[in-house]
Amino acid sequence: MALFVFLSLNMDIQYVYTKKRNQLGRPTNFSDRPAEILAEVIPNFNLLQEFIYRDPVEIGVQNSIQLSEHEVNTIRYNTESKGINHTEGGWPKDVNIQEQDQINRFRKKLEKDELYLNSLYRLIHDLEMGIKQNNAIDIHQVYFQNKIDDYDEPFNIKTINLYCYNPNINQMANHISWQPDGQRKIAVSYCNFDFNPIIMNTIDSLVWDIENPNKPELILKPNSSLSTVEFNQKDTYQILAGCLNGQVCIFDLRKGNTPVEQSLIEFSHRETIRNALWLQSKTGTEFFSAAADGKIYWWDTKKMNQPVDKLVFDLEKKERTQYASAITKLEYDSSIPTKFMVGTEAGRIVLCTRKAKNDAERINVIYPGHSGPIYSIQRHPFFHKTFLSVGDWSLRIWSEEIRDDYIFSTKPSRYYLTDAQWCPGRPGVFISSTNEGIQIKYRGKTMLKSSHCFKRETTSFYDP
After folding, report:
1. Mind giving me the DSSP string for 171-210?
2. pLDDT band, residue 325 (cuts 50/70/90)
3. Which of 32, 355, 367, 440 would you label with 286, given CA atoms 20 to 30 Å apart?
4. To 10 degrees, the CA torsion angle through 40, 45, 47, 48?
């Protein structure tokens, strides 16, 4: 045995351990002795004879890298945005901008002020100079005689947002109301007329912010499913709702998701409310409702215990409840506050007036209508004596002065028409919805042209 010791010049070559004798343990005394066998296994020749050699022997070996593939969907996080909108107006505190009468009185007061008149006189000089310059230049001169007409580009509608609260429940969006004054909220009533007990339990309706499709702004909690909703034109935070059980209720977005006012069940309709609309009034608290029981009720939000007035819709003007016609549609235009129109389940269109001594005088004109229930009535936004209606498989345009027949009708459609609206910007364009999608129609120089621009994917557009 060889022992090699490497010493560093920078290290000490000696180190002394100091311990007591009792810490070193018992003394040892080793001695040498010969080797001895502890165990011995003798070969078994019988087992050796039973051993078999395998020739050849095949062994598979794989040297490739083991790979695996997994697919995982990322977790969807619901986003939420919050903000504050602060607006200031230039009106005095005592002037309510929602009341047109107060605005007109304030303007007349300013027009009589001497400062206003002096400012107006100074501006007239600059205005006359601009008018003279416009008269000196012919702005209507045609520079290009042989100009080629522009061809219309194909119209298309793009889906921006999809609003779905609970995709596991088969809910049908029955009515949509936009919040007035340029707000970004929509109220949607969910009501299914198929009497399925599983569907009937889902009675919630929603208020959405159009910029946030991930989560509804508010979940309305009525006592029964809502069949129609309408925002108040003066108080934009109030929502009028008609229920499946015939009641009417008022929601206030500032006070929570439950009704702040509700009619009593014994003084309400006996059937599902088909329409409930706000009326033009100074207080902004009056509205009326119609249902399939053939009655029209007038209400005031200040007194919801019972209706202010009612009309039994008997077309023979005999006020018989058992012969009242079921109402499917109401139409009211604030520009004509004394008149309203009614569509019945039998296909009749009725022009009514609010100012009458009795119920018989309220029903003025009965138009032939359609061969099926009326699903939509709307006056023209520019020509108020003209209105359109939708029923069965056709759309018709009427005039108040022509009582015997319509002035225009579309040919029977392949799809079942469910609704129609005039375009607010172009007088010759209207949009109709079917159980297959949306159609945009416009009156050309010689014929009615149609552009089928949007098709549904899974559900129809309110197919009652």
Report:
1. --EEEEEE-TTT-SEEEEEE---S--HHHHT---EEEEET
2. confident
3. 367
4. 110
Residue 340: C-alpha distances to residues 280, 300, 343, 384, 431 (Å): 12, 18, 10, 12, 22
Nearest to 248 by CA among 221, 267, 220: 267
The tokens for 33 are 């002795």
Report the C-alpha gap between 379 and 271 in whole angstroms: 27
Instruction: Read off the tokens for 421.
Output: 């609206």
- Which residue shows structure tokens 């018992």? 26
Tokens of 246: 């015939």
Classified as helix, coil or strand, 365 is strand
Neighbouring CB atoms inside 10 A of 34's CB total 4
Fold of the domain built from segment(s) 173-389+399-404: Methylamine Dehydrogenase; Chain H (2.130.10)
Cα–Cα distance between 431 and 442 in angstroms, integer? 9
pLDDT digits over 337-392, tens only?
888 999 998 889 999 988 877 777 888 888 988 888 998 999 998 888 899 999 88
Residue 362 CB partners (closer than 8 Å, separation 6+): 311, 352, 353, 354, 356
What single DSSP character describes residue 57?
A: -
Domain boundaries, the chain: 173-389+399-404
Tally of residues, the chain? 464
**CA 13/CA 32 separation, integer angstroms:** 34
Contact 279, 233 (CB under 8 A): no
